[in-house]
Amino acid sequence: MNDNTKVVVALLAGLAAGAALGILFAPDKGEETRDKLSESLKNLGDSIKETAAAEIDNLVGFKDKVVDNIKSKIKGAEEEYQDDLEHA
Q: What is the pLDDT of residue 86?
């Protein structure tokens, strides 16, 4: 995970913790509190899923770049080798 992702995850966790504490100390009935807490946790889960999906996409893109770069270097080395064989 890069630094920006860590900051976003920490921010989301902090927001969820703050919301949970706010809900728990709010003067609502138990059922209302549980509903609010459940909704907050659902939203946190959705945010984490979205962040994870974005990071997976980033990793896939990075992997593709690395694979393409390696293939390019191998092809260049093969062509150089073939040229050396032809001139030998």
A: 82
